[in-house]
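Agenda item 2: protoporphyrin IX containing FE complex prediction
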Amino acid sequence: MSAAVAQTSPTRAALFPRLGSLLAIAPLGVWVAWHLWENLYAWRGDAAWSARAVDTMVTAEGRVYTGNPFGATLVSVVVFAPLLIHTAWGLRRLAASKPNGYRFFGNAKYVLQRLSALGLLAFLAAHVYLARISPALRSPTGHESFEDLASHMRHHPPTLVVYLLGVLGTTFHLANGVYTAAFIHGLAASPRAQRRMQALSVALFLLLLGVGWGAVAGLFEAGSQFLPPTD
Ligand code: HEM
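Presented output:
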């Protein structure tokens, strides 16, 4: 191995853990919070939800995608690339998981962070397939329609349960992750700072869960005006 490579390897080895952790907070975590918030527009009906959550306008002729042409690239850079990097990082951390010396609360959080990561992996795969990949093959907007999502939420109990659990897992994983990231990056060094960060993490979890479940409730409520899905 050349001297140049030997010198850069430690830097690269240190960069990946930091990148995998920081990208999960921003832009990924920030985008997740925004995404949950936008879905609250379900309470205002199809036109409002479509405009805010999926950049689609409902016209007399049908649905038109109104997003700017850079929208897809932006989502790839802000969401999918950080998600892939974080998932690769997370899977390595999962493989390295071992029994730890934390007390009950700390240990429960350690285990739940890993369980929620596995749940998220399954949830995100299903969510991205149903909300983006499958509609892209069938509809001109490339997004799942309000009617499709709301009627499944209302009349198809497995959809409702998966979204409730998916939002629970995502919001716990993100809020608890904010605490662990602050700890790892030295922002919560003293016991006092740790207590404060813990309180912030719990408040963030409850807030995000309220917004996310509020959006699911909005879609469930709106689903009553649609017939049960045929698929
Ligand atoms: C919306 C998607 C996701 C968001 C917003 C997110 C966010 C976070 C955050 C903020 C952390 C804390 C980072 C740190 O401790 O430095 C974290 C930790 C973690 N994430 Fe994710 N994550 C997501 C998806 C995933 C996925 C799909 C996996 C892969 C299975 C995963 C695996 C992990 C693991 C194992 C940890 C714990 C690392 C440790 O404490 O050692 N995450 N996540």
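Discussion summary: The CA atoms of residues 18 and 183 lie 13 Å apart.
Owner for follow-up: CH.
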